Amino acid sequence: MASLRPVSGPPRAIHAALRGWLAEPSPRPLVVRTSGSTGTPKDVVLGRDAMLASARATLDRLGGPGRWLLALPAHHVAGLQVLVRSLVGGTTPVLLDEYADLDAAVAAIPDGPRYVSLVPTQLQRLLDERAGALRAFDAVLLGGAPAAPALLDRARRAGIRVVTTYGMSETCGGCVYDGRPLDGVEVTVDHDGRVLIGGAVLFDGYAGRPELTAQTLVGGVLRTPDLGAFDADGRLRVTGRVDDVVVSGGVNVGLAAVEQRVREQPQVKDAAVVGADDAEWGTRVVAYVVADAGLTLDMLRDFVADTLPRTWAPRELVVVPDLPLLDNGKVDRRALRSGV
User: Fold this and answer.
1) Of 38, 107, 155, 301, most Cβ neighbours within 10 A?
2) Which pLDDT does position 125 carry in this prediction?
């Protein structure tokens, strides 16, 4: 059994429910429950027109319909859109979970353009194990979290066609590809650096939370929690989150910038940076890393301080075999803040 309010159930059942939903004359909006990776989960209300606008704009940007591999949870928006794009394109998705590994799943995908959506952690792991299979895709959409430049460079040098995406449940998934908005999507940055998004892909609101809806969806424009800027080529570059600044020792520290720099350290394979309560500093900057043996806190602090203020450098280093993840592949930052 599957439900679309909120979206839940086995992927094949959700796919069947979506087929019926798209065919209804006037369907009720579906509801996607967010992961709550940085706060309380929200029920995001998404209308059919918005979902279709997103799916069609994605297919247009990629060059047309193709065969999709579902490698993400279908009840979150990125996986859900894989199913919707398949239905819009008249194709049937292949489900990674139904096969022994990526090679077997790719072998089951019929001829024609092939697409897959991944999060950075998946790409990192598949590069180590199945880089050849990834080269079979005409596009590997990568979103859900910032990707380290070294990871993108490694993938592209391996001949994998990575398309970075930016978006959220409130925009029916990715709406900015390789820094450029999809057709019909309007992206601006306000005077405080907050990213604003308009267009046909926007959500209807948060179920049961009218005050939060009014604060977030203002005049038909989504006030995202993200900070960004446009580069010299006019591409959007997301630089952090509005609430991603902590005060450590009386200094404002941008955690996103620190995390980006930590990820660039040659011995680091994956990383997340969070703030932890500290009696001396108020908030202690902690770097959780998956890294080669031999990395020390002093080495990491020196590396961060090469490009950022030394007062921003992590005061604690925790080396872990893997970062804790939510079921959608995003880092579970609440677990890290709890010391897990």
Assistant:
1) 155
2) 87
